[in-house]
Amino acid sequence: MIQVGDALPDTTLMEYSEIEGEGCSIGPNAVPVAKATAGKTIAVFALPGAFTPTCSAKHVPGYVEHADAFKAAGVDEIWCVSVNDAFVMGAWARDQKTGTKVRMLADGDAAFAKATGLTLDLTGKGLGLRSNRYSMLVKDGKVATLNIEGPGKFEVSDAATLLAQAQA
Question: Hey, where are the domains in the chain?
Fold first, then answer.
């Protein structure tokens, strides 16, 4: 399992993009993790699935709400990572009104989740292999803080907790 001080896995996430005003897709586009995090401070939060109750009602809205405070704390980008395809993440971004505040990144085949060791097996619930719920502050591709939730919990991966760590 990934730990503080480790480099993020050199995998590729996918991001759905649109041409504003016309609604035509210009994505999904590859986001090579190592390249996209180089020289930046990134607030990453991951969750089991798009459009799920806790994720939609609490997790994403908290990061959208605190986006300006993250910027003021020196965070260059906020990433939401989920084991979904890029089209679902794009639709969820529109639903959650993330705009340019939170990048909604798809880990379609769970390669990133597997490489971090932060998977959650929800096969018995019809969801298959997913990402565990967590947050981390990443500086120049390396994990600076890591907050992993226990099963069914939402206590340490919220925006307020990670923001306090970014401000410290």
Answer: 12-163
Q: Would you give per-residue pLDDT tens digits along the chain (168 residues)? A: 999 999 999 999 999 986 554 555 567 899 999 999 999 999 999 999 899 888 898 899 999 999 999 999 999 999 999 999 999 999 999 999 999 999 999 999 999 999 999 998 888 777 778 899 999 999 999 999 999 999 889 999 999 999 999 999
The answer to whether residue 80 is catalytic is: no
Three-class SS state of 92: helix
Whether domain 12-163 has CATH 3.40.50.2000: the reply is: no
Q: Which residues pair with 31 in a beta bridge?
A: 13
Cis peptide before 32 (omega within 30 of 0): no
Residue 119 CA to residue 141 CA, distance in Å, equals 20
Q: HSE of 141 in the Cβ direction (CA atoms, 13 Å)?
A: 12
Name the catalytic one among 55, 73, 105, 136.
Answer: 55
Q: Are strands 134-139 and 41-47 parallel, antiparallel or unpaired?
A: antiparallel
